[in-house]
Amino acid sequence: MPGKMAREISAGGVVLRSQNGTWWMAAIELPEDSRSSAPNSRRVPRGPKPTLCLPKGLVDPGEKALDAAQREVREETGVTAELVEKLGDIKYVYLRSWGDRQKVFKIVSFYLLRYQSGRIDDVTPEMRIEVARACWIPLQDAPKLLAYKGEKEMARRAIDYVATNPDLVPKPAHVAGPPASHPRKAPRA
Fold first, then answer.
1. Which of 101, 123, 87 minimizes the C-alpha distance to 12?
2. pTM as predicted
3. Residue 94 backbone phi and psi in degrees, to 5
4. 9 Ramachandran zone, left/alpha/beta (phi>0; psi -120 to 50)
5. For residue range 145-164, what is the model confidence (pLDDT) as tens digits?
6. Burial class (CB in 10 A: 0-12, 13-18, 19+), 117
7. Residue 78 burial by Cβ neighbours in a 10 Å radius (0-12, 13-18, 19+)
8. End-to-end Cα distance, the chain
9. Which residues does residue 28 pair with via DSSP β-bridges, in sequence order?
10. Burial of 167 (0-12, 13-18, 19+ CB in 10 A)
């Protein structure tokens, strides 16, 4: 139907991990060739700077948004994570740069997730078409490092949540981590 806008529902995760008193967030870097075709690409920084974003993707038919967010996190970062709480929804309109070039109204539900297991960037070769690499970034820096406005807002909400919920992660008896001389070193896993 001409004039009718398509709708897409996606879900994603803000995966947090605490190590040596620093909060880290899982992020993905888009492959260089996909930067220009990403939704909202006019807002993506150009040049040598990598495009960092949150792991997210379409909710499959019959799938719940939370399940999709956890699946996308696992597929795009290599880690598994459990629910802390829903952070919110991002809503925007974009023009498809492929196929029918139709306008699309998109809703992305984001969940605050706690790291459980896995090794960051342990993704299948097939996922490299969507993810150049996955990495841990300091949560405090995430609003500056992420490429998209709505995702920057989700990072700020995660920062606020951590600040008001100090019991987010139970204190383990001993956490192996980097030496004290490297307090800002990203977690290995």
1. 87
2. 0.82
3. -140, 160
4. beta
5. 999 999 999 999 999 999 99
6. exposed
7. buried
8. 48
9. 53, 134
10. exposed
Average pLDDT of the residues in 72-101:
94
Domains of the chain, start order:
6-164 (3.90.79.10)
Angle at 11 between CA 26 and CA 171, to 5 degrees: 40
Residues in the chain: 189
| CA 89 from centroid of its chain's CA atoms | 13
Contact predicate 59/120, CB 8 Å: no
| 156 within 8 A of 139, measured Cβ to Cβ | no
Whole-angstrom Cα distance, residue 31 to residue 97?
Answer: 16
- The residue to which tokens 């993905």 are assigned: 28
- Residue 160 is given by DSSP the state H
Is 125 within 8 Å of 138 (Cβ atoms)? no
Neighbours of 166 (CB within 10 A): 7
Give the CA angle between residues 77, 39, 107 to the nearest 5°.
Answer: 80
Residue 60 DSSP class: P
Tell me: pLDDT of 175 over 80: no
CB 73 within 8 A of CB 15: yes
